[in-house]
Design brief:
The protein is built from 6 helices and 18 strands. The chain has about 290 residues and is α+β, with helices and mostly antiparallel strands. It has 3 domains: about 100 residues, PH-domain like (Roll), CATH 2.30.29.30; about 110 residues, Pleckstrin-homology domain (PH domain)/Phosphotyrosine-binding domain (PTB) (PH-domain like, Roll), CATH 2.30.29; about 70 residues, Arc Repressor Mutant, subunit A (Orthogonal Bundle). The strands form 3 sheets. Strands 8, 9, 10, 11, 12, 13, 14 and 15 form an 8-stranded antiparallel beta sheet that branches. It has a 7-stranded antiparallel beta sheet with strand order 4-3-2-1-7-6-5. β10 and β11 form a beta hairpin. α3 crosses α6 and α4 packs across α6. The radius of gyration is 22 Å and the shape is globular. The relative contact order is 0.09.
Length: about 290
C-alpha cells in the first residue's frame, strides 16, 4: 500500500473469493484510499470509493457465531456487488469501524441546523455550513471555533426526509437525541446521498447497540409504569409526580431507574434518558400490536 496505513490488524475474514464455510484468519490493512484483506487464499483490495454499504445487520447468524464482533462491507467490483465480513475483538472492530467511517464521511462540509427543535419546539436556528467529523461515540459539528457534539448513544430516533435548507429541498438526516434535561432535533444534509447513507449507518449501528443493551436490562413492570408516567408528563417530573402501584416506594423505584441509567435526576426532578425512552417506545409498540 503506497498510502499511509491507518489500521493494520489480524482478524477473521470472509469474502466471496474465499470458498470457506466459516471465516479464516487474515490481515486487515486500511489507508485513505483502500481496504486490503490478506489471507492464505490471496489478497482482496477494496477501494473506499466503491464501498456502498457498511450494514452490520447483513452479517448472517451462520457466520456471526464464529465471531466476537463483526462488520459487513458491501462494495462494487466490475459492475457486480460483492461482500466482505471482518471479525475480531469488540475493541478492535470498534476502533476499525470508527476509522473506516471517518475515512468515508469525516472531515467534510455539511449543511446543518442545530438544534432545529428543542423539547419538540421549532427553534429559530438557521441552516449553516459546518464541518462534520466523527469519533467512536459522537458526531461533531464545528462552526468557527465552536463544536456541537451529538452523543450517538443519546440518539432516540432518526429518519430521512427532504428538508428545506438554504433555500433548497435537500435529502436530510433528522436526529432526535437527548441532551441533558431536554430533547434536541438536529438536521444534517450531505451533498452526497451515498455519504448521507453512511452517516445513517453509523448512527444505526450505535443505536442498535444501545437498544440491544437496554433489552438485556431487567426492567420490572413497576419500573416500566414509572417510565411511561414520566414519558406522559413530557419526559420529566418530580419524584412525587411519577405514578406507580400504591404499595410501591417511589424513592426505591427511582433509585433502581437511576442505577440502570433509564433516568437522570437534577434538583429533585427525574428526566428520561434515551435508554428510558427506548423502554417506553418498545412497551407502547407491543401494546399497539
Amino acid at each position: 500500500m503506497s498510502e499511509e496505513v491507518v489500521a493494520d490488524f489480524t482478524g477473521k475474514l470472509l469474502t466471496e473469493d474465499i470458498e470457506q464455510l466459516k471465516p479464516v484468519k487474515g490481515r486487515v490493512l486500511l489507508n485513505r484510499e483502500q481496504l486490503v484483506l490478506v489471507t492464505g487464499e490471496g489478497k482482496e483490495t477494496i477501494f473506499l470509493s466503491k464501498i456502498v454499504s457498511t450494514n452490520p445487520g447483513s452479517v448472517a447468524d451462520s457466520v456471526s457465531q464464529f465471531l466476537e464482533e463483526a462488520i459487513a462491507i458491501a462494495y462494487e467490483r466490475n459492475g457486480t456487488r460483492r461482500q466482505a465480513i471482518i471479525g475480531g475483538s469488540p475493541e478492535t472492530i470498534a476502533k476499525f469501524r470508527t476509522l473506516l467511517f471517518k475515512l468515508l464521511i469525516g472531515k467534510q462540509t455539511v449543511i446543518a441546523k442545530h438544534p432545529a427543535k428543542r423539547g419538540g419546539r421549532v427553534t429559530d436556528a438557521p441552516a449553516r455550513k459546518m464541518l462534520l467529523d466523527l469519533s467512536e461515540s459522537a458526531i461533531e459539528l464545528t462552526l468557527d471555533d465552536k463544536t456541537a457534539r451529538i452523543n450517538v448513544e443519546a440518539v432516540i430516533g432518526f429518519e430521512h426526509e427532504q428538508r428545506e435548507l438554504m433555500d433548497r429541498a435537500r435529502p436530510t438526516l433528522i436526529l432526535d437525541h437527548a441532551a441533558g434535561s431536554t430533547t434536541l432535533t438536529t438536521y444534517i444534509s450531505l451533498l452526497s446521498k451515498r455519504k448521507l447513507t453512511f452517516l445513517s449507518q453509523f448512527v444505526r449501528l450505535n443505536y442498535s447497540k444501545v437498544v440491544d443493551d437496554v433489552r438485556q436490562t431487567e426492567v420490572s413492570d413497576t419500573e416500566t409504569q414509572a417510565l411511561i408516567s414520566l414519558y406522559s408528563a413530557g419526559g420529566n417530573a418530580s419524584l412525587d409526580g411519577i405514578v406507580t402501584d400504591d404499595d410501591t416506594d417511589t424513592q426505591t423505584v427511582a433509585e433502581h431507574l437511576l442505577e440502570k441509567e433509564l433516568v437522570t435526576e437534577e434538583e429533585g426532578v427525574l428526566y428520561l434518558t434515551s435508554r428510558g425512552e427506548i423502554v417506553v417506545t418498545e412497551q407502547l409498540e407491543s401494546v399497539n400490536e
